[in-house]
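General statements about sequence and structure are easier to judge against a single worked case. In the encoding step, the backbone of a single protein was reduced to a row of integers, each denoting a local shape. The record that follows shows the chain in one-letter code together with its fold in token form.
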Amino acid sequence: MSSTKVVPAAATGPRASTPPAGPQVIKKVETKVKTSFEDVEGLLNNLLMLTTFTLGFSISFIAAFEYGALAEIDVRYYKLQQAFPGEVEDAFPSSPKGVHNIFSPSGTMLERGMWSTTIMSISLTIALGSYVSMCASDAREDEKFFKKWYATFKWIIIFGYFLYFVAYILFYLMLSTAAIGLFPRYCDTKKGGSGSVWLTEKSFQPDGKGDYEIVEGCLREGIRYPVDAMTLLLNIAMPVIFIAIFLISLWMHRKEKIIRLRGAIAAPLHGRWK
């Protein structure tokens, strides 16, 4: 932020040098941007809001399924893996070897959901503790104490945001597991307009009771796309976008600082050139 101060030309006597044709301009430049109490309060309020809402969604999602529905999902995948051996293992390269070779959607949802809930709770605790510490201290009234407080707690706040992103990624991984377990695994599909999916009559067969049942398969393809592909894209895009915006803001601040410094060391301007 720059300001100007006009200093009238002074004469020291008849033999003094000729003053400039116009008023002399002296530039004062401030290059340091201060982080205020309100800035930190806004960061903590955002973190509190994000963790509270996402934590509520995560807990509600875990408790949304009944025991019978979860057991039915596991039995269904057991039958599919018996009919199509090796496909689920190919879709999950990190699957364990040996006798533990039956994929459990319910157990995977619980594992990812509990980790997401736990890490999100830690992030919420960090945000709440930092907010109480800031408001209960003299940070609002005493600028020196606020600088001392912020020098330490800014890293704690950043760590809280980091935990939130980790928990958010686990939350979407839990959602992807639910999508894998709940939705049918059709093979004979074709993508249509507006994101629609179309089947043929091969996807259905009579069940001998006057009704029809679906024909499932293609476990590897169904797991990898669109569920895992979109989840991977989202989990990469979210932190990349956040970090990119943060780096761009730092670059803009540095560029503005260089421009201000160049203006500060420039020669004073006079008259119509000011």
